[in-house]
Amino acid sequence: MRKVAIGQAGGPTAVLNASLVGLVEGLRGKAEVYPVFNGYQGLARDRPRPMDDELYEWIRSHLRVPGACLGSGRYDFTPERMEQAVMNLKREDIHTLAFIGGNGTMSALKRLGEIADDIGYELQIVGIPKTVDNDLGETDHAPGFASAARFVALSVRNIVKDLEAMRNFEQVRIIETMGRNAGWLALSGGFLARGRESGPHLIYLPEVPVTREQILSEVSRAVKEWGIAAVVVSEGFTFAGSAKIKRQSVNGRMVLGGISRLMEQLIHEQLGYHVRSENLGMNQRSASFAVSLQDRREAYEAGGQAASFIAAGLSGIMVNIQRQPDECYNYVIGQVSLDRVVHSGERLLPPKFIADTSEYYAWLEPILGEPIPSYPANWKRGIRDEPERIYP
Amino acid sequence: MRKVAIGQAGGPTAVLNASLVGLVEGLRGKAEVYPVFNGYQGLARDRPRPMDDELYEWIRSHLRVPGACLGSGRYDFTPERMEQAVMNLKREDIHTLAFIGGNGTMSALKRLGEIADDIGYELQIVGIPKTVDNDLGETDHAPGFASAARFVALSVRNIVKDLEAMRNFEQVRIIETMGRNAGWLALSGGFLARGRESGPHLIYLPEVPVTREQILSEVSRAVKEWGIAAVVVSEGFTFAGSAKIKRQSVNGRMVLGGISRLMEQLIHEQLGYHVRSENLGMNQRSASFAVSLQDRREAYEAGGQAASFIAAGLSGIMVNIQRQPDECYNYVIGQVSLDRVVHSGERLLPPKFIADTSEYYAWLEPILGEPIPSYPANWKRGIRDEPERIYP
To answer: ipTM of the assembly?
Structure first.
């Protein structure tokens, strides 16, 4: 029976375990499965051990659990460690490797395949996509993204409602989302508002640097128009003409983030408004209570399809989601070569989605899962139809 | 027909509008309702106008919408402005005032009643409780708290799952919750874990100052035991011997917050772990997608019961929730004098809940709404049962 090592790598998502469940269920009875704990670190250091029934059932119990039940993590996967990983597989006579991950994972898988080739060891390689940023190329979208987008869309809508209630005290809120290079998640923050008066009034993306002056002018216009300005900004946004904002982490490692705090400061100092900023944080990649059921289903199917591709002997591929050109949302779980995925690099928002957000939202809607009921429109007695003042 | 001015004040909750809906439905046909926009600011400055059918239906459409649809906000309600507010009501011959709010709102209502007394104007006063902090006295709990607690419990559990997956890279996460003086929300972060290995491993409350040394020792012990330490901290927590942590807001106003960032720095510098901190933010008071249906129901009922108390002529009261000593959760929506509420001040966690969190969680469970399925226990091959290492 074919021996298959499987694992998870990188930052978790709300549906990463669903892909793993699809994969182990698909391989059940057709292969001997070697689950790798702790991602590429486990692959490089630990002796692979076959899955017993207990571990199989334990993995299956994670269908609706966020995180990565095998452990994923980050690891400095050096060329030497990659060679060790291949040697570990060879030692156990494991000729198939399937990992669930993002861009970094796909690059590593490609390299592992090349190393195996170099030493003449036959190694079948299959990648299964996962990302909250949606920056993986050669797939319509990747499992994990839609749940994160649903969380962001819901959170932004609710936080704007909260701000509306506080308008006599607070004028501006800045909500920071994940998305180091791509604005898919940040732009999702407008899905439930779509430019109506209820905000968010402004969204800033990594793909579109904007000057400080323009931001101040846009925020000021929004406050004049609506009394408040709800702003969504991607962690990867940069002021035009500036380098990416990094904050000196206390861990001594430069990390992205902090753009919302900088904007808070800028807007308060220059415009005098009461401004509050916040980061939507790790809930974006783990909020099981805001998960898109369509996303979870696709994640599960991607894992299952990977098992079929393994049985069919395909190698050097990543499973992908191919949206069909039908009137209603329809998709095929297919595959594409890892070479093409790695070559295409980080996928940014296409210009057409930035130019016309309604096109983006039409693309986004079917993968967000269950329809979300609208909130009522704002009462006409808004900022521009003030009640009669008795006292100033 | 009795004329009743109604309004919302202070920070919104996910179910504040449900109380308003209960109130307007309860008053329908029995009173002429004057909705006050923008909280106490509107009460002080604007001429009250009666609700028409359109506004009534618009308010009712907010049953499931977070925020405060009339506007609540913060307002410096000076003695002069309070007098203006009473004069505004007198001018329209409005003899009843019902507001939904927290401790500040109840104090203001009490003062408004006294001012009316002083000038011999008959003014019936009814308060309806609302808070996410649960720091209102003389009620078993206040509407809004349980939904916030549900969001915190779910978020903490998910973020811990995410951390477990990242354990080869990150050791400590600090999750900051609301709660300026009371730890109800922070302690809710442990509801879904209850001291099992899955964390949170440590919870720090405003009621229990702890020294820096003790925190370092506790975090270090948790990491040794479990490989990670998930820490929940209330925004109002203070190091023993220190003043409350305030950060200089860019708005020039000293605000609470930032304790999680300080703890991140302390733990990283002293113990060298990779630490990340985050604040759960405004979702705590507006996450309609994690609302407790029991909380929403109680919020709605509190509004409806307020209408009955108004019809019965009660005054100087706050509606409250009286838990019955039954085996199963049971409650009566009753009332208590505003004097007692104001006199009792901010309600902290009782010592018995801090000493035995299982007592607290038994108290909390029925108000959190629909039961939340458990996550599977961690795999036995955890930190203490390492797989066989081929390489170090």
So the answer is: 0.95
Q: Note the pLDDT tens digit of each residue in B3-51.
A: 999 999 999 999 999 999 999 999 999 999 999 999 999 999 999 999 9
Q: Which residue has the tokens 């060891």?
A: A121
pLDDT band at A378 (very low <50, low <70, confident <90, very high): confident
B285 touches chain A (CB under 8 A): yes
Return d(Cα B164, Cα B158) in angstroms, integer.
10
What is the rounded CA–CA span in Å between residue B187 and residue B236?
13
Query: Is A313's Cβ below 8 Å from some Cβ in B?
Result: no
Residue A94 has pLDDT above 60, yes or no: yes
Question: Which residues, including other chains, have CB under 8 Å from residue A16's CB and lie 6 or more apart?
Answer: A8, A66, A67, A68, A72, A100, A130, A143, A144, A299, B165
Measured between CA atoms, the residue of chain B closest to residue A37 is: B387
Q: Report the C-alpha gap between B327 and B331 in whole angstroms.
A: 12
Q: Is the Cβ–Cβ distance between A357 and A194 less than 8 Å? A: yes
pLDDT at B338 over 80: yes
Task: Pull the structure tokens for residue B146.
Answer: 């349980």
pLDDT at position A198 is 73
Q: Are B64 and B290 contacting, i.e. CB atoms less than 8 angstroms apart?
A: no
Kind and range of the H or E run holding B230? strand B229-234
b/e sequence A185-219, b meaning 16+ C-beta within 10 Å: bbbbbbbbbeeeebbbbbbbbbbeebebeebbebb
How far, in Å, CA of A357 to CA of A5, rounded?
42
CB proximity A73 to B under 8 Å: yes
Average pLDDT, chain A: 93
Domains and CATH numbers, chain A: 2-144+289-351 (3.40.50.450), 153-284 (3.40.50.460)
User: Does the beta carbon of B257 lie under 8 angstroms from any beta carbon of chain A?
Assistant: no
Chain A residues with beta carbon closer than 8 angstroms to that of B165: 8, 12, 16, 67-69, 71-73
pLDDT higher than 70, residue B58: yes
Distance (Å) from the alpha carbon of B160 to chain A's nearest alpha carbon: 8
Chain position carrying tokens 């049985």: A311
Give the minimum alpha-carbon distance from B177 to chain A in angstroms, rounded to a whole number: 13
Name the strand (E) or helix (H) holding B358: helix B357-364
Residues of chain A contacting B14 with CB distance shorter than 8 Å:
158
Is pLDDT of A72 > 90?
A: yes
Say how far apart CA B22 and CA B304 lie, in whole Å. 4
3-state SS of A20-51?
A: HHHHHHHHCCCEEEEECCCHHHHHHHECCCCC
Write the pLDDT tens digit of every residue in B149-171. Answer: 999 999 999 999 999 999 989 99
A16 CB neighbours in chain B (<8 A) are: 165
**Distances in whole angstroms, Cα of residue B184 to Cα of each of B174, B181, B285, B342, B385:** 17, 9, 14, 20, 36
* Residue B7, Cβ density class (10 Å: 0-12 exposed, 13-18 middle, ≥19 buried): buried
Residues of chain B neighbouring A279 (CB-CB closer than 8 A) = 278-279, 281
Any CB–CB contact under 8 A between B362 and chain A? no
**pLDDT value at position B254?**
46
Average pLDDT, chain B: 93
CB A205, CB A197: distance < 8 Å:
no
Instruction: Choose from B87, B231, B282 for mutation: most chain A CBs within 10 A.
Output: B282
User: Could you give the CA distance from residue A18 to residue B378 in angstroms, rounded to a whole number?
Assistant: 17
The beta-carbon neighbor of A158 closest among B88, B159, B288 is B288
Region A61-90: mean pLDDT is: 96
Query: Is B155 close to A387, i.e. CB distance below 8 A?
Result: no
| Chain B contact set for A91 (CB, 8 A) | 390
